[in-house]
Amino acid sequence: MTDTWLVAGGAGYIGAHVVRSLQAAGIGAVVIDDLSTGSSDRVRVPFVRGDIGNVDLVTDVLRQHEITGVIQLAADKQVAESMTEPLTYYHRNVVNLMQLLTAMARAEVDRLVFSSSAAVYGMVEAALVTEDHPTRPINPYGETKLVGEWLIRDQARATGLRFAALRYFNVAGTAAPELADLGRTNLIPMVFDALDRGEQPVIFGCDYPTPDGTCVRDFIHVEDLADAHVAAIAALDSPGAAQVFNVGCGRGYSVREVIETVAEVAGLSIEPRPSDPRPGDPAMVVADTEHISTALGWRPRHDLREMVRSAWHARSPQLSAAQG
Ligand code: UDP
User: CB of 176 closer than 6 A to ligand 1?
Assistant: First the structure.
């Protein structure tokens, strides 16, 4: 019988891509999502609308669908919001995770892939961040992801739960227009939105100690990221394979380079406006991806241009078709 995985948060941008990758790998998927930010339009597999904090509901879903393992992406992810609403973030990202683990223990589901974040590192000093870099998150969002990792690790020690925690770097792009990111709080969507309003995009800080003075980030295509979940699932077949993995490209692009790529893809001339640095932004966060490539055999296949191009086509199909 085919394995079936429960994708918690599968109606979201990343979750819907994970479902797509599972299907491509011949693995069954069931989605649970409370639709707080996700959309049921993205879901083409059995779908339960509900909260992962509801232990009875999740236990029933796990039993009824004979679930092999859970991919947990049902969480809040906006750094700025986490600063003003820490209780909400601890509730949704930590308390609900505890409830999910409780339901998994009850239903004897012993495999978990957890969506973590490079935000667990906080201020990064190294040129490339390895998984054993100190974890000192600088906002409640990053804290809740780190506490989530601890919780899962401790539960794994106590019960034999097999898990992989994937620390996502800067996720971008889309595999298909209908799966595109609807959030507007990250760099690429914010650049698009500025252009839409007939304004020039803003660069938060041009005096960082980086080659062009703007922040450097590691952008990963959501399709590659989704495939990393499938690779992680395969690794859980071996006992004791619990691991924490960076998921990035291992290459940095500056904010200015990203905006130049948007200009190229959109065929527009863009003159970004320098602005004050955003509080709490580290100068440079780039993944060392040695661990995931060695342990899981996973490597990204898409570059920044493809991320920008797919996102641009998804938001303005007519305009982009006219420009070829
Ligand atoms: N950024 C920017 N202009 C914008 C949006 C973001 O200069 O309109 C910068 C931001 O300061 C950071 C980088 O782009 O250095 C990536 O920001 P994002 O919020 O996408 O992700 P983060 O790395 O903060 O998680």
Answer: no
The domain defined by 4-172+220-247 carries CATH number 3.40.50.850: no
Ligand 1 center to residue 215 CA distance, Å? Answer: 8
- The pLDDT value recorded for residue 85 is 96
Q: What's the pLDDT at 280?
A: 80
Task: Choose among 95, 232, 227, 108: nearest CA to 163.
Answer: 232
Q: Is it true that domain 177-217+250-318 has CATH number 3.90.25.10?
A: yes
Residue 187 Cα to ligand 1 midpoint, Å, equals 5
Distance between CA atoms of residues 207 and 283, nearest Å: 9
Biggest CA–CA distance in the chain, Å, is 58
Mind listing the pLDDT tens digit for each residue in 8-25? Answer: 999 999 999 999 999 999
Please state the atom number of ligand 1 nearest to the C-alpha of residue 217. 23
What's the pLDDT at 125?
83
Q: Is the CB of 263 under 6 A from ligand 1?
A: no
Q: What is the pTM of this model?
A: 0.96
The pLDDT, as a whole number, for residue 281 is: 87
198 phi, psi to nearest 5 deg: 75, 20
Residue intervals in the chain for CATH 3.40.50.720: 4-172+220-247
Mutate which of 215, 253, 261, 276 for ligand 1? The one with the most ligand atoms within 8 Å of its CB, which is: 215
13 is catalytic: no
Pocket of ligand 1 contains residue 217 by CB under 6 Å: yes
Q: What pLDDT was estimated at residue 324?
A: 42
Q: Which residues of the chain have pLDDT under 50?
A: 318, 320-322, 324
Structure tokens at 123: 């201020």
pLDDT score of 316: 65
In sequence order, the 6+-apart residues with CB closer than 8 A to the CB of 61 are 6, 30, 32, 48, 50, 67
